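Give me the fold.
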Amino acid sequence: QLQLVESGGGLVQPGGSLRLSCAASGFTMADIAIGWFRQAPGKERERISCISNYGVRTDYAASVKGRFTISRDNAKKTVYLQMNSLKPEDTAVYYCAADRYSYCSANMRYWGQGTQVTVSS
C-alpha cells in the first residue's frame, strides 16, 4: 500500500508560521521525489516546492521563495514544509505528492488528501 498523509494545517495570523508534514507509507524513500502543491477555491492548482530523493535538490515557486522551506527525513518517511511570514493569499488546501520517475512534475503519480491552511486576522 502506498499512502501520503498531510498534517499540520490550521488557522494562523498574517506574519505567522506553520509547519506541514507529509507522512509517506509503503514507499522506498530513496526512490521518490516529493512535491508540495496548493489550491484555493476558484484558482488553479499551484506547484509551490519540490525536493529530490535525498534532499540535495530543492525548488520553490516565486510566490513562496524566501518564506517556505522544504526538507525531508527519509528515516522517518516524512517530508516537511516550513512556512514563515504567511500572507492571506497563502490560504489554500495544501497537498503533498510523490513520483518515482520524475522530479518536480506537475502530474505526480501519488497524492495525499490535503490539509487546510488559513491565514487570517
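The mean pLDDT is 96.
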